[in-house]
Every structure is written in C-alpha cells, then in structure tokens.
Amino acid sequence: MTVSLSDITRAVESSYDGIWITDAIGTTLFINEAICRITHLKRENVIGLNMRTLVERGMFDVSATLLALEKQDVVTILQHVSTGVETIVTATPVFNTDGTIDKVISNVRDITELSALKEKLERAEARNLAYQNEIAHLKSRLDEDGKLIAEDQSMQSVMHQAERISAFETPVLLHGEPGSGRHRLARWIHDHSERRHQPFIKLGCGALPEERMERELFGSEETGDTQGSPRVRPGLLELARGGTLYLEDIAALPVAIQMKLASAFACGVHYRHGGDKPVELDVRVLSSSIDDLEQQRRDGRIRDDLYYHVNVYRIDIPPLRRRRKDIPLLARQFLDQLSKRYGRKIGISTALLAKLRDAPWSGNIRELRNTMERLYVNSEGHTIVGGLSSAEGAVSARGRPEATSLKQILEDTERRVLQQAYSRYETTYGVANALGISQTSAVRKARKYAIKVRQPGRPGLA
C-alpha cells in the first residue's frame, strides 16, 4: 500500500500542531489549519509573504525560518505573535541533493497557557522564599515574647508614635544609634499594621557590592541563548510584595541604586537586572539611619528624591543611656528568654541591676543583651550577683559618686566619645571632621587613651 500526495496533504491539514512551509528565501508557501487556530492569523494575510516582511510588520517578534536559513540547521525558539499568543517553533531546513536549501518546514505549538503557568510558578516560588524568610525569623524569635519594653517616658513617646503610624502606609524613617533597637521597632510597626500577615524583608544597605546589591534588591533576568526562556530570580522588592521592606542604614546605598530605587517608588514599578518588563511594586517602606539623614543629604550621601520619599515620618529612638528605667526590665527580659531557651531559671540581684542601670552602654541594647547572655552562661548559682567587666561596671557620669574628681569625669567622658567616634569613622581624619577638632588632636588623644585607629596606608596606630 502506497501513500499518495493527497494522503500526506490531509495528514498535514489534520495535524494538531501548526505546520508552516516556506521556500529557500523564506516566502510562505503553505500553512495548515492548525496555524490559523493557534496564531489567530488568516491564510490570506500570510501566504506569498516573506517571513522577513512579517517580522518587519510586527506580526512576529522573531522568525525561526530566517534563523534556520541563516544557520542552515534546525532552530527552536520562543516566538511572540502580534495576536498575543506565545509559541514554540522548530524550523527544519530541507536540503537538495547538492546541499542547497529547498524549503523550510516549521512546527508550531501554542505555549501561552504553559507560559502563564510558568509565571504563576515563579510568583509562587518567590512567595515561598518570602515565607521561608518569615519562618526563619519566627524560629529565631521562639525565645522572645515580642514585647517592647517602654517604661521610660522617652521610649513611651516613641511607642506612641509607632502605634499611630502603624495604621498608615506612610514611609517611616527610624533614627538611632547602632544597637538601639531600630530593627526591632521596624518589625513592631509591621506586626501592628494591615500588612502584618505578609512578608517583612530586611536589607542591610551597606552589606553588598553595588552590582550584587542591584540583583538582590531588584532581582535579575538571565537568558543563556536565543532558544531558552529567561531565568528569573526575584529580588527583595518582589519577595516583600504585599508586605514591608525595611532598608537598614539607607544612606549606605550606592548612588546608582538610590536613583533606581527612587524611580521605582515614584513610578510604582521596577525592572529586574537584565530585564525590560516592568514589575509592579507593592511594598511599604521603612528605613533607618544612624547619622542625621538631613545632614547626609546636604553632604550628597543620599539623593534628594530618595530622601524626601523615605523621610515622610521620622521617629528618633533614644539610646539606652537615656532610657535608664528600661534597663532593669530589659535585663530581666533577656534572662527570661535565656531561661526558656536553656531550661535553667536564674535570677539577678538588686545590687547588680542597679549597676546595670548606671552603666554607660555605648553599645545600647545589643551590648546589654550580650552582657546578660555572658552573665547567664558564667553563673553557677540561682542568682547572678556579679561578673561585670571593668568597662560594663564603670558608672556613667549620671550615676557617678560625688567624690570622683571633675577632671576624671571629663576624661572618662572624652574617652567614651572618642571610642565611639573611632568605632564609627575608623580614621583620624574621619574622627577629626566629625568632632570638629584638628587631625593632630585626634591622633594625640587616641594615643592618650590607647585607642587603636586606622589611617590610610597604615595598618594602625596605638
């Protein structure tokens, strides 16, 4: 039994996949009924036309036929049709006996639904990553009761502001020293907002190089070749969709990232690194700064457009030394958390609590938490009565006995100020500029108090 030409024609016409046949220069000779069904194009609009003309008219974004003619080999691509359909096309050249191309036969399949499912899967994966982030955060807080201590009047004012602003979508700037609880307060605002059931994502703005920071924040799209679909990696702006993005130390962002972020906030969309499709922005922005952001704006460290977006509502968090009523309560809270974690209940003496209350705490809450953990680990009885280091046990100027000389008080205060300045600015030039003294004085005072500092081109100065 032989197969006739009419049998072949009927088979091609009844094929579920689209069949598109052109000659050796790309002129359309034949399309089957499936092409009309898949692409929503009509025969009379394509028969006799060259594929190059169809691409130029915008009917297709790219032609597998033209690529197959160019490469003289089989080519498979993703193709977008002007009717909104997305297809996968395999173009196969048919050769004459002399090696020249006679025709190109293309197989066309509709993958519009598949692409939609792929996009949904990518969104689901992005949401899954966000939930994993949340789960990790919750696991790290299993030993915490979530309560923010605010007995001191200065902290009560902060909590009143936080409670008020949590009901709004307004961008908030949290200003405070390192370790003062900026991250914890940002989390509290999120947990008491309408977005509390959505992700809370934190980004340390000075933690990564510029290119990696862009990919981390905005995501990326990478295409290996013309035959593959782009690999999409969602950024933090997408992972935080519907929730809150907390930008810690926002002035540390590179200027180029600041510009792109400000544009995203203004337009409500952003673009992934390497991508050209807009991605909808739906996040509430909380940010924080150690130094005065207005001064950083004047110094050119933060762009005006970004500054005015994030600094709509500002909350100043007091350092621990200015909320001394909270120190004993925080110390007990940290002990309770440690007791829950390790299953060993330990108390603390009133005398030691008094020493903790009057200590300088230049490292703020972070330093107090670490101190309480060290005291807990080193404790041997049921009550902690001592164990503070000389620095922790040093009484602040506020609580110092009157018998101490004024000269000693001034020297201790100067030492603490210089230690904090060198910890933040590192070099003698930076410290001199911050404190308004000469660089020579900064060097001399560092030697006086045996503070190790770093200068450009030199490993250190004792």
Outline the fold blueprint:
Blueprint: H1 5-14, E1 18-23, E2 28-31, H2 33-39, H3 51-56, H4 64-71, E3 75-80, E4 86-95, E5 101-110, H5 112-140, H6 153-165, E6 172-175, H7 182-191, E7 200-204, H8 210-218, E8 220-222, E9 231-233, H9 236-239, E10 244-248, H10 255-267, E11 269-271, E12 278-280, E13 284-289, H11 293-298, H12 304-310, E14 313-316, H13 326-342, E15 347-348, H14 350-358, H15 364-378, E16 383-384, H16 390-393, H17 406-425, H18 428-435, H19 439-448, E17 453-455, E18 458-461
Parallel strand pairs: 6-13, 6-14, 7-10, 10-13, 15-16
Antiparallel strand pairs: 1-2, 1-5, 3-4, 4-5, 8-9, 11-12, 17-18
**Architecture per CATH nomenclature, i.e. the level-2 architecture of the largest domain:** 3-Layer(aba) Sandwich
Strands in their spatial order, largest beta sheet = 2-1-5-4-3
Helicity level, as a percent range?
40-55%
The CATH top-level class label of the largest domain: Alpha Beta
What is the domain total for the residues?
4
Number of helices: 19
